[in-house]
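Hi P.,

Sorry for the delay on this. The queue was packed all week, but I finally got your sequence through. Input first:
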Amino acid sequence: MPNPTNRQWLLASRPQGSLKLSDFSWNEQAFAPPLLDEGELLVQNRYFLCAPTMRNFLNPPGRSYRASVPIGAPISGVVGSEVIASRDPAYPVGSRVTTVARWEDYSRLNPGRVEVPVYRVEGDVSLEELMGPLSLNSLTAYYGLFGIGKIQPGETVVVSAAAGSVGSMACQIARISGCRVIGIAGGPTKCAWLRDTLHLDGAIDYKSDDVAARLGELCPQGAHMYFDNVGGAILDAVVDHMAVHGRVAVCGQLSAYDSDEPARGRFDMMKIVYRRIRMEGFVLGDYAAQVDTARAHLRDWLRAGHIQCRVDLRHGLRNLPAAFLDLFKGANEGTLLVANDTP
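Then the structure:
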């Protein structure tokens, strides 16, 4: 039976500059299972995925492709949930699903009316696997490389935030696909992990290396494809070292996320012209109808030991905002999940 209390995290104030714990407020309200309308589900949220792009949802309206979270409303993010009541035969009670829902114990969903599809877990895949190596982050890496980047064997691929959840998966998928892979990350430990564990062809420490000089050394013929997770000065440096007809998949702008200022580009646009570089932003929703194909490939690679996913698992709904803030401090290792250990 559901707990009689639904615990939530609300947006207490619109963030000014870097995100702070005081921007969130804890709320507990009495809960009784609602009478569902046709097509609706009641889910109990078991895992919460912390993803940097969620920071945009907290900004004023107009700064994100998704609706801005109103002040006083529950925070939204990717969740892994169990269906505990259903009026949709495609999602019977006991089904495990992942979608975008609220930071709370229980959420009422209508799969036919949500912005992000409600994906049901099939077969022997665990909910934690679905939120880790088979997560929306991994699917984003897959389609950034193949849908936007059009990678081919033998090409050189550069990935920023390469030790993070999306970046590390992009590195591994590119390597599996026969590409030379150069990862950019912060700190010697992360770079050593990229070289020694993920077996990349090179790693650049943006905190201590001259990124532009190292790109020149590691990509003498230029980068054919760049998977951009951070924007800013690193994007500028990589554009300077792109090959003719190179492709840039713009996935995120981590350098500007934890701020109330818009992300701004600074690179020389004439380099885009002369080198005929194609730069394209994307969101996973562009490929919503194709995720089963990507997830099948990822599952096969995972079972065969070709890819690995570091999951930084934290515990407790009360710790969710603090874990989220760790993303912007670089204090996580891999995919950051918070398990909802209900009382």
